[in-house]
Amino acid sequence: MIAVEGLHKSYGGRVALKEVDFSVPEGEIFGFVGPNGAGKTTTIRILATLATADAGTASIGGIPVSEDPYGVRQLIGYMPDFFGVYDRLTAEEYLEFYAACHGVPRRRRRQVATELLELVDLADRAGDQVDTLSRGMKQRLCLARALVHDPQVLLLDEPASGLDPRARVEMRELIRELRRMGKTILVSSHILPELEELCTWVGFIDEGRMVAAGPMSEVRNQVISGRRLRIELVDDDSDASLAAEKVIRSRPGVIGVDFVDSGLQILVEDSFADQDLLSDLVRRGIAVRSFAQITGDLAEAFLRLTGPEGEA
User: What is the pTM (predicted TM-score) of this model?
Assistant: First the structure.
């Protein structure tokens, strides 16, 4: 649904994008991750037809952005990281105004506004002026604005920026609902744990270059080699920990052992037989409180792929 190939963009002497490549299949939620200034917003603005690339191609729904921007705008809904609102309009009037801008027939504008306010849980605020809404409500109203023409693709640039925890949860659930409705969604954010819960695909960009992109699980597995196990002992004294460490290190396939808080964290090869280690510990009289695999998270992948470590 979204395809980007060899995208290059410079502003004066500063290169913002360097041969950026990635794709987003239909119906997926793509998390666009990178440090400040990495090129996320520039890429999104090019996809939204608000900026032009110096080289390379970008298309949405098979339509080249540079060749048919009007056709692309029919397919996309864009929510920028900073947006203005018309404070003196009511929430309903605000959506009706944008529905008119997108060519929605007059007879349908009120119905579209009503349905969207219901979708973003603002139906009870339809008659309230926009300037009386909280920031979280304004964010949801801005997302509703991006939906007035029922686009197939959503480009969301930091949609949860500045929101409190409750408002972030509401925004996350709303994005999930939009995917269930068949939307393809590209979302950039610095809130990595939420992206990890939300997204099905992910792409990392650093200093204008894509350093990894693909299905969430595949990218994590590529970046974070081996598996990690976490073992907590019933007795957390040093003797029990040292005895457990000796058993663990004696087993083939163990790459490393670290003491973390009240337990041990173990890095093992992918083929390592976890159950055999647990049986061995119990057989040797070492009481185990918990034994679990630790999933490598998006934050760890981010740190490995970006900045000085990522460049090494």
Answer: 0.78
